[in-house]
Amino acid sequence: MPNILFKRILFLIPLILLGCFVFGQEQSDVTFELKLSKEKLGINERLRVEFTMNKDGDNFNPPSFEGFKVVMGPSQSISSSWINGKRSFSKSYTYVLKPNRQGSFALGQATIEIEGNTYKTLSKNIVVTAAVDNPNAPKSADDVADESLHLVAEVSKASPYLNEAVTVVYKLYISPSISVTNFRPVDSPKYNNFWSQDIPVTKYNTNNGTYEGKPYRSVVLKRVVLYPQKTGKLDIEPLSLEIYVDVPTNRRDFFGGKIYTQASKTVSAGRRTLTVKSLPESGKPANFGGAVGEFNFSVSTSKTALNASESLQAIVEVTGKGNLKLFQLPEPDLPSALEVYEPEFGESVRTTVSGMQGKVSNNYTVVPSFRGKYPIPSISFSFFNPKTARYTTINSDEITINVMEGPADAAAINPATGGVAKIAVPTSEQFHFIKVTPNLTNIGANYFFGSNRFYALLFCPFLLIPLVIVYRKKLKKNAESIEGNRLKKANRLARKYLSTAKKELGDEDNFYVALEKGLHNYLKAKLKIETSDFSKEKITGLLNEKNVEIEHTESFIALLKNCEMARYSPFTDVQMQQDYHKASEVISLMDKQL
Q1: How many Å separate Cα 370 from the centre of its chain?
Q2: Where are the transmembrane segments (predicted)?
Q3: Rounded to whole angstroms, how far apart are CA atoms 325 and 347?
Q4: What pLDDT is recorded for position 524?
Q5: The domain defined by 30-137 carries CATH number 2.60.40.740
Q6: pTM: predicted TM-score of the whole model, two decimal places
Protein backbone atom coordinates (compact mmCIF):
# COMPACT_ATOMS: atom_id res chain seq x y z
CA MET A 1 0.00 0.00 0.00
CA PRO A 2 2.74 2.54 0.82
CA ASN A 3 4.50 1.58 -2.41
CA ILE A 4 1.38 2.33 -4.46
CA LEU A 5 0.92 5.73 -2.76
CA PHE A 6 4.57 6.57 -3.33
CA LYS A 7 4.29 5.71 -7.04
CA ARG A 8 1.21 7.96 -7.43
CA ILE A 9 3.07 10.88 -5.79
CA LEU A 10 6.03 10.39 -8.10
CA PHE A 11 3.61 10.42 -11.07
CA LEU A 12 1.89 13.70 -9.97
CA ILE A 13 5.06 15.66 -9.25
CA PRO A 14 6.03 16.12 -12.95
CA LEU A 15 2.46 17.19 -13.80
CA ILE A 16 2.45 19.78 -11.04
CA LEU A 17 5.84 21.12 -12.08
CA LEU A 18 4.71 21.27 -15.72
CA GLY A 19 1.55 23.18 -14.77
CA CYS A 20 3.55 25.70 -12.71
CA PHE A 21 5.95 26.18 -15.60
CA VAL A 22 3.15 26.75 -18.10
CA PHE A 23 1.36 29.17 -15.76
CA GLY A 24 4.54 31.07 -15.07
CA GLN A 25 5.29 31.22 -18.76
CA GLU A 26 1.81 32.57 -19.48
CA GLN A 27 2.36 35.22 -16.82
CA SER A 28 5.76 36.13 -18.19
CA ASP A 29 4.41 36.25 -21.78
CA VAL A 30 2.34 39.44 -21.03
CA THR A 31 4.11 42.49 -22.47
CA PHE A 32 3.16 46.19 -22.20
CA GLU A 33 5.68 48.54 -23.83
CA LEU A 34 6.20 52.20 -24.73
CA LYS A 35 7.60 52.89 -28.20
CA LEU A 36 8.79 56.33 -29.41
CA SER A 37 9.32 57.39 -33.00
CA LYS A 38 12.43 59.26 -31.77
CA GLU A 39 13.99 60.25 -28.45
CA LYS A 40 15.45 63.50 -29.77
CA LEU A 41 13.52 65.90 -31.99
CA GLY A 42 13.33 69.53 -33.04
CA ILE A 43 10.64 71.85 -31.71
CA ASN A 44 9.15 71.98 -35.22
CA GLU A 45 8.77 68.17 -35.41
CA ARG A 46 6.11 65.77 -34.20
CA LEU A 47 6.59 62.81 -31.84
CA ARG A 48 4.72 59.54 -32.30
CA VAL A 49 4.10 57.67 -29.02
CA GLU A 50 2.76 54.10 -29.14
CA PHE A 51 1.70 51.90 -26.21
CA THR A 52 1.58 48.21 -27.31
CA MET A 53 0.47 45.01 -25.54
CA ASN A 54 0.19 41.37 -26.59
CA LYS A 55 -3.02 40.72 -24.62
CA ASP A 56 -6.20 42.69 -24.40
CA GLY A 57 -6.62 44.82 -21.28
CA ASP A 58 -8.88 47.38 -19.60
CA ASN A 59 -8.61 50.75 -17.83
CA PHE A 60 -5.75 52.15 -19.93
CA ASN A 61 -4.31 55.35 -18.38
CA PRO A 62 -1.76 57.36 -20.42
CA PRO A 63 0.89 59.62 -18.82
CA SER A 64 0.34 63.37 -18.50
CA PHE A 65 2.58 64.27 -21.52
CA GLU A 66 4.00 67.28 -19.66
CA GLY A 67 5.79 69.68 -22.04
CA PHE A 68 3.82 68.45 -25.06
CA LYS A 69 0.49 69.12 -26.73
CA VAL A 70 -1.59 66.20 -27.98
CA VAL A 71 -2.41 67.04 -31.60
CA MET A 72 -3.85 63.63 -32.45
CA GLY A 73 -4.99 60.55 -30.54
CA PRO A 74 -5.49 58.27 -28.98
CA SER A 75 -6.00 56.12 -32.05
CA GLN A 76 -6.49 52.42 -31.30
CA SER A 77 -5.54 49.46 -33.47
CA ILE A 78 -5.97 45.68 -32.91
CA SER A 79 -4.56 42.77 -34.89
CA SER A 80 -5.14 39.06 -34.29
CA SER A 81 -4.02 36.03 -36.31
CA TRP A 82 -3.46 32.24 -36.12
CA ILE A 83 -0.18 30.83 -37.50
CA ASN A 84 0.48 27.09 -37.31
CA GLY A 85 -2.17 26.72 -34.66
CA LYS A 86 -0.67 29.46 -32.52
CA ARG A 87 -2.62 32.67 -31.80
CA SER A 88 -0.88 36.05 -32.21
CA PHE A 89 -2.52 39.18 -30.69
CA SER A 90 -1.46 42.81 -30.62
CA LYS A 91 -3.20 45.98 -29.45
CA SER A 92 -1.87 49.55 -29.41
CA TYR A 93 -2.82 53.13 -28.37
CA THR A 94 -1.09 55.81 -30.48
CA TYR A 95 -0.64 59.56 -29.84
CA VAL A 96 0.98 62.32 -31.91
CA LEU A 97 2.59 65.00 -29.73
CA LYS A 98 3.84 68.51 -30.48
CA PRO A 99 6.54 69.95 -28.16
CA ASN A 100 5.64 73.21 -26.42
CA ARG A 101 9.22 74.30 -25.70
CA GLN A 102 12.83 73.17 -25.84
CA GLY A 103 14.37 71.10 -23.06
CA SER A 104 14.55 67.59 -21.58
CA PHE A 105 11.29 65.93 -20.56
CA ALA A 106 10.48 62.64 -18.81
CA LEU A 107 7.57 60.76 -20.30
CA GLY A 108 5.83 59.10 -17.34
CA GLN A 109 4.43 55.59 -16.97
CA ALA A 110 1.22 54.37 -18.55
CA THR A 111 -0.86 51.67 -16.79
CA ILE A 112 -3.34 49.00 -17.89
CA GLU A 113 -5.13 46.05 -16.30
CA ILE A 114 -4.68 42.65 -18.00
CA GLU A 115 -6.34 39.54 -16.54
CA GLY A 116 -6.69 41.20 -13.14
CA ASN A 117 -3.08 42.38 -12.93
CA THR A 118 -1.81 45.97 -13.38
CA TYR A 119 1.07 46.52 -15.79
CA LYS A 120 3.17 49.66 -16.25
CA THR A 121 5.48 50.94 -18.99
CA LEU A 122 8.97 52.21 -18.32
CA SER A 123 9.54 55.99 -18.14
CA LYS A 124 11.62 57.47 -20.97
CA ASN A 125 13.45 60.76 -21.45
CA ILE A 126 12.89 62.94 -24.52
CA VAL A 127 15.12 65.85 -25.64
CA VAL A 128 13.58 68.75 -27.62
CA THR A 129 16.08 70.88 -29.54
CA ALA A 130 15.81 73.96 -31.76
CA ALA A 131 13.98 73.72 -35.09
CA VAL A 132 15.57 71.36 -37.59
CA ASP A 133 15.35 70.78 -41.31
CA ASN A 134 13.99 67.32 -41.90
CA PRO A 135 12.31 67.16 -45.31
CA ASN A 136 12.46 63.38 -45.52
CA ALA A 137 10.66 62.72 -42.22
CA PRO A 138 7.13 61.29 -42.55
CA LYS A 139 4.49 64.00 -42.20
CA SER A 140 1.89 63.84 -39.49
CA ALA A 141 -1.75 64.86 -39.93
CA ASP A 142 -0.94 68.29 -38.48
CA ASP A 143 1.95 68.73 -40.87
CA VAL A 144 -0.34 67.98 -43.78
CA ALA A 145 -2.99 70.40 -42.43
CA ASP A 146 -0.36 73.14 -42.03
CA GLU A 147 0.63 72.84 -45.66
CA SER A 148 -2.90 72.44 -47.02
CA LEU A 149 -4.79 75.35 -45.39
CA HIS A 150 -4.27 79.07 -46.06
CA LEU A 151 -6.57 81.93 -44.95
CA VAL A 152 -6.13 85.07 -47.05
CA ALA A 153 -7.69 88.55 -46.68
CA GLU A 154 -8.24 90.03 -50.14
CA VAL A 155 -8.55 93.85 -50.02
CA SER A 156 -10.23 95.63 -52.94
CA LYS A 157 -8.13 98.81 -52.61
CA ALA A 158 -4.90 99.37 -50.67
CA SER A 159 -4.91 103.18 -50.92
CA PRO A 160 -8.51 104.50 -50.72
CA TYR A 161 -9.73 108.02 -50.08
CA LEU A 162 -11.29 109.03 -46.78
CA ASN A 163 -14.84 107.59 -46.63
CA GLU A 164 -14.34 105.52 -49.80
CA ALA A 165 -15.60 101.93 -49.70
CA VAL A 166 -13.05 99.13 -49.25
CA THR A 167 -14.15 95.49 -49.45
CA VAL A 168 -12.31 92.78 -47.51
CA VAL A 169 -13.01 89.18 -48.54
CA TYR A 170 -11.64 86.37 -46.37
CA LYS A 171 -10.93 83.27 -48.49
CA LEU A 172 -9.83 79.87 -47.26
CA TYR A 173 -7.64 77.95 -49.72
CA ILE A 174 -7.86 74.16 -49.26
CA SER A 175 -5.64 71.52 -50.84
CA PRO A 176 -7.54 68.81 -52.76
CA SER A 177 -5.88 66.17 -50.55
CA ILE A 178 -7.90 67.10 -47.43
CA SER A 179 -11.49 68.06 -46.61
CA VAL A 180 -12.81 70.65 -44.14
CA THR A 181 -15.46 69.41 -41.73
CA ASN A 182 -16.09 72.52 -39.60
CA PHE A 183 -14.62 75.82 -38.43
CA ARG A 184 -15.13 78.36 -35.66
CA PRO A 185 -13.86 81.95 -35.15
CA VAL A 186 -11.05 82.33 -32.63
CA ASP A 187 -10.38 86.07 -32.91
CA SER A 188 -12.61 88.49 -34.84
CA PRO A 189 -11.25 91.89 -35.95
CA LYS A 190 -12.73 95.06 -34.41
CA TYR A 191 -12.10 97.36 -37.43
CA ASN A 192 -11.09 100.40 -35.34
CA ASN A 193 -11.17 103.72 -37.25
CA PHE A 194 -13.53 102.20 -39.85
CA TRP A 195 -17.28 102.24 -40.33
CA SER A 196 -17.93 98.58 -41.07
CA GLN A 197 -20.80 96.51 -42.43
CA ASP A 198 -20.73 92.71 -42.63
CA ILE A 199 -22.19 91.04 -45.71
CA PRO A 200 -23.55 87.68 -44.52
CA VAL A 201 -22.31 84.58 -46.33
CA THR A 202 -25.39 82.36 -46.54
CA LYS A 203 -23.83 79.53 -48.54
CA TYR A 204 -20.25 78.32 -48.71
CA ASN A 205 -19.58 77.63 -52.40
CA THR A 206 -16.30 75.97 -53.37
CA ASN A 207 -14.40 77.17 -56.44
CA ASN A 208 -11.36 75.64 -58.14
CA GLY A 209 -8.29 77.83 -58.46
CA THR A 210 -4.60 78.12 -57.64
CA TYR A 211 -2.59 79.29 -54.66
CA GLU A 212 1.12 80.05 -55.13
CA GLY A 213 1.01 78.18 -58.45
CA LYS A 214 -0.55 75.00 -57.04
CA PRO A 215 -4.13 73.75 -57.55
CA TYR A 216 -6.37 74.60 -54.62
CA ARG A 217 -10.04 74.91 -53.82
CA SER A 218 -11.23 78.19 -52.31
CA VAL A 219 -14.29 79.18 -50.29
CA VAL A 220 -15.38 82.64 -49.08
CA LEU A 221 -15.92 82.57 -45.31
CA LYS A 222 -16.50 86.27 -44.53
CA ARG A 223 -17.08 89.54 -46.35
CA VAL A 224 -17.05 93.05 -44.90
CA VAL A 225 -17.26 96.57 -46.35
CA LEU A 226 -15.15 99.23 -44.62
CA TYR A 227 -15.29 103.04 -44.84
CA PRO A 228 -12.11 104.59 -43.36
CA GLN A 229 -12.83 107.46 -40.95
CA LYS A 230 -9.22 108.66 -40.58
CA THR A 231 -6.38 109.41 -42.96
CA GLY A 232 -2.92 107.86 -42.84
CA LYS A 233 -1.94 104.23 -42.27
CA LEU A 234 -4.78 102.18 -40.75
CA ASP A 235 -4.39 98.55 -39.72
CA ILE A 236 -7.00 95.87 -40.37
CA GLU A 237 -6.78 93.37 -37.53
CA PRO A 238 -6.36 89.71 -38.53
CA LEU A 239 -9.18 87.18 -38.54
CA SER A 240 -8.28 83.87 -36.85
CA LEU A 241 -10.21 80.63 -37.31
CA GLU A 242 -9.85 77.11 -35.97
CA ILE A 243 -10.37 74.70 -38.87
CA TYR A 244 -11.21 71.03 -38.42
CA VAL A 245 -10.08 68.80 -41.32
CA ASP A 246 -9.97 65.14 -42.35
CA VAL A 247 -6.47 64.11 -43.47
CA PRO A 248 -5.82 60.81 -45.35
CA THR A 249 -3.35 58.33 -43.85
CA ASN A 250 -1.24 55.62 -45.46
CA ARG A 251 -3.54 52.93 -44.08
CA ARG A 252 -6.54 51.43 -45.81
CA ASP A 253 -9.67 49.77 -44.57
CA PHE A 254 -10.97 46.26 -45.30
CA PHE A 255 -12.41 47.38 -48.66
CA GLY A 256 -9.24 49.15 -49.75
CA GLY A 257 -10.46 52.67 -49.05
CA LYS A 258 -8.22 55.28 -47.44
CA ILE A 259 -8.48 55.73 -43.68
CA TYR A 260 -8.77 59.38 -42.64
CA THR A 261 -7.73 61.00 -39.37
CA GLN A 262 -9.00 64.30 -38.00
CA ALA A 263 -6.76 67.25 -37.24
CA SER A 264 -7.31 70.90 -36.31
CA LYS A 265 -5.35 73.99 -37.22
CA THR A 266 -5.64 77.65 -36.26
CA VAL A 267 -5.19 79.84 -39.33
CA SER A 268 -4.92 83.63 -39.48
CA ALA A 269 -5.40 86.01 -42.38
CA GLY A 270 -2.60 88.27 -41.18
CA ARG A 271 -2.66 92.00 -40.48
CA ARG A 272 -3.27 94.27 -43.48
CA THR A 273 -2.44 97.99 -43.64
CA LEU A 274 -4.31 100.57 -45.73
CA THR A 275 -2.91 103.96 -46.69
CA VAL A 276 -5.93 106.29 -46.53
CA LYS A 277 -5.65 109.47 -48.58
CA SER A 278 -7.26 112.74 -47.47
CA LEU A 279 -9.73 114.48 -49.78
CA PRO A 280 -8.12 117.21 -51.89
CA GLU A 281 -8.52 120.79 -50.73
CA SER A 282 -8.36 122.31 -54.19
CA GLY A 283 -11.79 122.75 -55.66
CA LYS A 284 -13.59 121.73 -52.47
CA PRO A 285 -17.04 123.48 -52.41
CA ALA A 286 -17.97 125.53 -49.37
CA ASN A 287 -21.09 123.39 -48.80
CA PHE A 288 -19.26 120.04 -49.00
CA GLY A 289 -20.64 117.78 -46.23
CA GLY A 290 -18.48 114.66 -46.54
CA ALA A 291 -20.34 112.73 -49.27
CA VAL A 292 -17.99 110.43 -51.21
CA GLY A 293 -19.22 108.38 -54.16
CA GLU A 294 -21.44 108.83 -57.22
CA PHE A 295 -24.81 110.45 -56.45
CA ASN A 296 -27.89 112.13 -57.89
CA PHE A 297 -29.71 114.89 -56.01
CA SER A 298 -33.28 116.19 -56.23
CA VAL A 299 -35.83 118.33 -54.36
CA SER A 300 -39.53 117.67 -55.00
CA THR A 301 -42.92 118.50 -53.49
CA SER A 302 -46.08 116.43 -53.30
CA LYS A 303 -48.09 119.35 -54.74
CA THR A 304 -47.48 122.89 -55.96
CA ALA A 305 -51.02 124.30 -55.58
CA LEU A 306 -53.09 124.16 -52.39
CA ASN A 307 -55.13 126.23 -49.96
CA ALA A 308 -53.94 127.81 -46.71
CA SER A 309 -53.82 125.45 -43.69
CA GLU A 310 -53.44 122.44 -46.03
CA SER A 311 -50.12 120.59 -46.01
CA LEU A 312 -47.63 119.40 -48.58
CA GLN A 313 -44.48 117.25 -48.45
CA ALA A 314 -41.12 118.66 -49.53
CA ILE A 315 -38.61 115.84 -50.13
CA VAL A 316 -34.83 116.33 -50.26
CA GLU A 317 -33.36 113.11 -51.70
CA VAL A 318 -29.91 111.71 -52.57
CA THR A 319 -29.60 108.48 -54.58
CA GLY A 320 -26.59 106.59 -55.83
CA LYS A 321 -23.60 104.65 -54.58
CA GLY A 322 -21.25 105.70 -51.79
CA ASN A 323 -21.19 106.51 -48.07
CA LEU A 324 -24.94 107.17 -47.93
CA LYS A 325 -25.16 106.75 -44.14
CA LEU A 326 -22.19 108.96 -43.32
CA PHE A 327 -23.16 112.51 -44.34
CA GLN A 328 -25.88 115.07 -43.64
CA LEU A 329 -28.44 116.09 -46.25
CA PRO A 330 -28.64 119.80 -47.16
CA GLU A 331 -31.57 121.72 -45.67
CA PRO A 332 -34.00 123.81 -47.76
CA ASP A 333 -34.33 127.56 -47.13
CA LEU A 334 -38.12 128.06 -47.06
CA PRO A 335 -40.00 131.40 -46.78
CA SER A 336 -40.99 132.42 -43.24
CA ALA A 337 -44.68 132.44 -44.23
CA LEU A 338 -44.51 128.65 -44.55
CA GLU A 339 -44.66 126.64 -41.36
CA VAL A 340 -42.09 123.80 -41.56
CA TYR A 341 -41.96 120.79 -39.22
CA GLU A 342 -38.97 118.64 -38.29
CA PRO A 343 -38.09 116.32 -41.20
CA GLU A 344 -38.73 112.58 -41.19
CA PHE A 345 -35.60 110.72 -42.26
CA GLY A 346 -36.03 107.96 -44.83
CA GLU A 347 -33.47 105.34 -45.77
CA SER A 348 -33.41 102.55 -48.33
CA VAL A 349 -29.80 101.39 -48.46
CA ARG A 350 -28.33 97.96 -49.11
CA THR A 351 -24.67 97.01 -48.76
CA THR A 352 -23.00 94.87 -51.42
CA VAL A 353 -19.39 93.87 -51.98
CA SER A 354 -18.89 97.16 -53.85
CA GLY A 355 -20.30 99.31 -51.01
CA MET A 356 -23.55 101.01 -50.02
CA GLN A 357 -26.12 101.90 -52.67
CA GLY A 358 -29.71 103.13 -52.53
CA LYS A 359 -31.20 106.40 -51.34
CA VAL A 360 -31.61 108.62 -48.26
CA SER A 361 -34.10 111.44 -47.88
CA ASN A 362 -35.56 114.06 -45.55
CA ASN A 363 -39.34 114.50 -45.77
CA TYR A 364 -40.51 117.96 -44.59
CA THR A 365 -44.16 118.71 -43.80
CA VAL A 366 -44.97 122.27 -44.93
CA VAL A 367 -48.15 124.18 -44.02
CA PRO A 368 -48.79 127.65 -45.57
CA SER A 369 -50.71 130.19 -43.47
CA PHE A 370 -51.58 132.83 -46.08
CA ARG A 371 -52.49 132.91 -49.74
CA GLY A 372 -49.89 133.90 -52.28
CA LYS A 373 -46.99 132.49 -54.24
CA TYR A 374 -43.93 131.25 -52.33
CA PRO A 375 -40.70 130.13 -54.04
CA ILE A 376 -38.56 127.29 -52.68
CA PRO A 377 -35.06 128.39 -53.73
CA SER A 378 -32.61 126.05 -55.44
CA ILE A 379 -30.48 123.87 -53.08
CA SER A 380 -26.97 122.68 -53.91
CA PHE A 381 -25.42 119.33 -52.96
CA SER A 382 -21.72 118.59 -53.37
CA PHE A 383 -19.86 115.26 -53.29
CA PHE A 384 -16.41 113.90 -54.08
CA ASN A 385 -16.15 111.26 -56.82
CA PRO A 386 -13.13 108.98 -56.11
CA LYS A 387 -13.15 107.64 -59.69
CA THR A 388 -12.54 111.06 -61.21
CA ALA A 389 -10.82 112.50 -58.07
CA ARG A 390 -12.99 115.63 -58.45
CA TYR A 391 -15.80 117.39 -56.63
CA THR A 392 -19.25 117.63 -58.22
CA THR A 393 -22.03 120.06 -57.30
CA ILE A 394 -25.69 119.47 -58.25
CA ASN A 395 -28.29 122.26 -57.95
CA SER A 396 -31.98 121.50 -57.62
CA ASP A 397 -34.68 123.35 -59.56
CA GLU A 398 -36.54 126.25 -57.94
CA ILE A 399 -40.12 125.32 -57.03
CA THR A 400 -43.01 127.79 -56.61
CA ILE A 401 -45.83 126.99 -54.19
CA ASN A 402 -49.16 128.61 -55.13
CA VAL A 403 -51.51 129.07 -52.15
CA MET A 404 -54.86 129.87 -53.77
CA GLU A 405 -57.30 130.41 -50.88
CA GLY A 406 -56.73 131.73 -47.40
CA PRO A 407 -56.24 134.97 -45.42
CA ALA A 408 -54.02 137.68 -46.85
CA ASP A 409 -50.69 138.27 -45.18
CA ALA A 410 -50.90 141.65 -43.38
CA ALA A 411 -47.11 141.89 -43.53
CA ALA A 412 -46.99 141.35 -47.31
CA ILE A 413 -44.86 143.92 -49.11
CA ASN A 414 -46.42 146.07 -51.84
CA PRO A 415 -44.12 145.72 -54.80
CA ALA A 416 -45.11 149.17 -56.16
CA THR A 417 -44.47 151.30 -53.07
CA GLY A 418 -42.05 149.09 -51.19
CA GLY A 419 -44.20 149.58 -48.07
CA VAL A 420 -47.06 147.74 -46.44
CA ALA A 421 -49.92 146.96 -48.77
CA LYS A 422 -53.00 149.11 -48.14
CA ILE A 423 -56.70 148.49 -48.82
CA ALA A 424 -58.54 151.35 -50.61
CA VAL A 425 -61.76 152.51 -48.79
CA PRO A 426 -64.41 154.84 -50.44
CA THR A 427 -64.76 158.33 -48.84
CA SER A 428 -68.50 157.91 -48.17
CA GLU A 429 -67.83 154.86 -46.05
CA GLN A 430 -64.91 156.15 -43.98
CA PHE A 431 -66.97 156.29 -40.71
CA HIS A 432 -69.60 153.64 -41.45
CA PHE A 433 -68.51 151.64 -38.38
CA ILE A 434 -69.70 154.41 -35.95
CA LYS A 435 -73.34 153.98 -34.75
CA VAL A 436 -75.14 157.34 -34.37
CA THR A 437 -78.45 155.91 -33.08
CA PRO A 438 -77.78 153.95 -29.83
CA ASN A 439 -80.28 151.28 -28.80
CA LEU A 440 -80.70 151.94 -25.04
CA THR A 441 -83.40 150.44 -22.75
CA ASN A 442 -84.69 151.45 -19.29
CA ILE A 443 -83.79 148.87 -16.57
CA GLY A 444 -86.20 150.36 -14.02
CA ALA A 445 -85.65 150.71 -10.26
CA ASN A 446 -84.60 147.07 -9.56
CA TYR A 447 -81.92 146.69 -6.88
CA PHE A 448 -79.35 143.88 -6.67
CA PHE A 449 -78.95 143.86 -2.86
CA GLY A 450 -81.45 141.46 -1.20
CA SER A 451 -82.42 139.85 -4.51
CA ASN A 452 -82.44 136.12 -5.23
CA ARG A 453 -79.30 136.52 -7.35
CA PHE A 454 -77.55 138.18 -4.42
CA TYR A 455 -78.20 135.22 -2.04
CA ALA A 456 -77.37 132.65 -4.71
CA LEU A 457 -73.95 134.19 -5.27
CA LEU A 458 -73.43 134.53 -1.52
CA PHE A 459 -73.92 130.82 -0.68
CA CYS A 460 -72.46 129.26 -3.85
CA PRO A 461 -68.85 129.26 -2.50
CA PHE A 462 -69.94 127.20 0.53
CA LEU A 463 -71.62 124.66 -1.74
CA LEU A 464 -68.40 124.30 -3.80
CA ILE A 465 -66.24 123.36 -0.76
CA PRO A 466 -67.08 119.56 -0.90
CA LEU A 467 -66.33 119.52 -4.63
CA VAL A 468 -62.96 121.19 -4.03
CA ILE A 469 -62.10 118.61 -1.35
CA VAL A 470 -62.96 115.69 -3.66
CA TYR A 471 -60.98 117.25 -6.49
CA ARG A 472 -57.88 117.75 -4.32
CA LYS A 473 -57.99 114.13 -3.16
CA LYS A 474 -58.11 113.00 -6.76
CA LEU A 475 -55.11 115.18 -7.64
CA LYS A 476 -53.19 113.75 -4.71
CA LYS A 477 -53.97 110.19 -5.79
CA ASN A 478 -52.82 110.93 -9.35
CA ALA A 479 -49.61 112.50 -8.03
CA GLU A 480 -48.88 109.41 -5.94
CA SER A 481 -49.24 107.13 -8.97
CA ILE A 482 -47.17 109.29 -11.35
CA GLU A 483 -44.15 107.00 -10.96
CA GLY A 484 -46.29 104.01 -11.87
CA ASN A 485 -47.63 105.86 -14.92
CA ARG A 486 -44.09 106.66 -16.05
CA LEU A 487 -43.09 103.03 -15.67
CA LYS A 488 -46.11 101.86 -17.68
CA LYS A 489 -45.30 104.36 -20.41
CA ALA A 490 -41.65 103.24 -20.50
CA ASN A 491 -42.67 99.58 -20.66
CA ARG A 492 -45.03 100.28 -23.55
CA LEU A 493 -42.17 102.05 -25.34
CA ALA A 494 -39.84 99.08 -24.80
CA ARG A 495 -42.44 96.65 -26.15
CA LYS A 496 -42.91 98.87 -29.19
CA TYR A 497 -39.24 98.79 -30.21
CA LEU A 498 -38.68 95.14 -29.26
CA SER A 499 -41.88 93.64 -30.66
CA THR A 500 -40.16 92.29 -33.77
CA ALA A 501 -37.33 90.78 -31.70
CA LYS A 502 -39.85 89.03 -29.45
CA LYS A 503 -41.46 87.36 -32.48
CA GLU A 504 -38.03 86.02 -33.56
CA LEU A 505 -37.14 84.42 -30.20
CA GLY A 506 -35.63 81.01 -30.93
CA ASP A 507 -34.22 82.07 -34.33
CA GLU A 508 -30.74 83.32 -33.43
CA ASP A 509 -29.88 85.22 -36.63
CA ASN A 510 -33.24 87.00 -37.08
CA PHE A 511 -33.62 87.67 -33.34
CA TYR A 512 -30.33 89.52 -32.94
CA VAL A 513 -30.82 91.44 -36.19
CA ALA A 514 -34.27 92.59 -34.94
CA LEU A 515 -32.88 93.33 -31.45
CA GLU A 516 -30.07 95.47 -32.82
CA LYS A 517 -32.49 97.34 -35.10
CA GLY A 518 -34.85 97.95 -32.15
CA LEU A 519 -32.03 99.39 -30.01
CA HIS A 520 -30.88 101.65 -32.86
CA ASN A 521 -34.44 102.82 -33.60
CA TYR A 522 -34.92 103.69 -29.94
CA LEU A 523 -31.84 105.93 -29.91
CA LYS A 524 -32.85 107.39 -33.26
CA ALA A 525 -36.27 108.35 -31.85
CA LYS A 526 -35.05 109.69 -28.49
CA LEU A 527 -31.85 111.47 -29.53
CA LYS A 528 -32.85 112.47 -33.10
CA ILE A 529 -29.73 110.81 -34.50
CA GLU A 530 -28.98 108.16 -37.08
CA THR A 531 -27.20 105.60 -34.90
CA SER A 532 -25.71 103.72 -37.84
CA ASP A 533 -23.41 106.75 -38.26
CA PHE A 534 -21.93 106.26 -34.82
CA SER A 535 -19.59 103.77 -33.18
CA LYS A 536 -20.28 102.36 -29.74
CA GLU A 537 -17.83 104.93 -28.32
CA LYS A 538 -19.80 107.84 -29.82
CA ILE A 539 -23.10 106.38 -28.59
CA THR A 540 -21.58 106.13 -25.10
CA GLY A 541 -20.51 109.78 -25.30
CA LEU A 542 -23.99 110.94 -26.37
CA LEU A 543 -25.68 109.04 -23.53
CA ASN A 544 -23.21 110.50 -21.03
CA GLU A 545 -24.02 113.99 -22.32
CA LYS A 546 -27.70 113.22 -21.63
CA ASN A 547 -26.75 112.29 -18.03
CA VAL A 548 -27.78 108.66 -18.46
CA GLU A 549 -26.39 106.56 -15.63
CA ILE A 550 -23.14 104.76 -16.48
CA GLU A 551 -24.61 101.40 -15.45
CA HIS A 552 -27.48 101.74 -17.94
CA THR A 553 -25.13 102.93 -20.70
CA GLU A 554 -22.82 99.96 -20.18
CA SER A 555 -25.78 97.56 -20.29
CA PHE A 556 -26.97 99.14 -23.56
CA ILE A 557 -23.50 98.82 -25.15
CA ALA A 558 -23.20 95.22 -23.90
CA LEU A 559 -26.44 94.36 -25.73
CA LEU A 560 -25.06 95.85 -28.97
CA LYS A 561 -21.90 93.74 -28.55
CA ASN A 562 -24.02 90.60 -28.08
CA CYS A 563 -25.81 91.41 -31.33
CA GLU A 564 -22.43 91.58 -33.10
CA MET A 565 -21.09 88.42 -31.45
CA ALA A 566 -24.21 86.48 -32.49
CA ARG A 567 -22.98 86.68 -36.12
CA TYR A 568 -20.01 84.51 -35.28
CA SER A 569 -20.82 82.50 -32.14
CA PRO A 570 -23.85 80.34 -31.31
CA PHE A 571 -26.26 81.64 -28.66
CA THR A 572 -28.76 79.48 -26.77
CA ASP A 573 -32.47 80.14 -26.37
CA VAL A 574 -31.85 80.97 -22.71
CA GLN A 575 -29.29 83.63 -23.68
CA MET A 576 -31.70 85.11 -26.24
CA GLN A 577 -34.46 85.26 -23.61
CA GLN A 578 -32.11 86.94 -21.14
CA ASP A 579 -30.97 89.52 -23.72
CA TYR A 580 -34.60 90.31 -24.61
CA HIS A 581 -35.59 90.95 -20.96
CA LYS A 582 -32.40 92.93 -20.40
CA ALA A 583 -33.12 95.12 -23.45
CA SER A 584 -36.66 95.80 -22.25
CA GLU A 585 -35.41 96.76 -18.80
CA VAL A 586 -32.61 99.00 -20.12
CA ILE A 587 -34.92 100.90 -22.50
CA SER A 588 -37.43 101.44 -19.67
CA LEU A 589 -34.77 102.76 -17.29
CA MET A 590 -33.09 104.95 -19.90
CA ASP A 591 -36.37 106.42 -21.08
CA LYS A 592 -37.16 107.76 -17.61
CA GLN A 593 -33.82 109.59 -17.61
CA LEU A 594 -34.04 110.84 -21.20
Answers
A1: 51
A2: 454-471
A3: 9
A4: 72
A5: yes
A6: 0.49
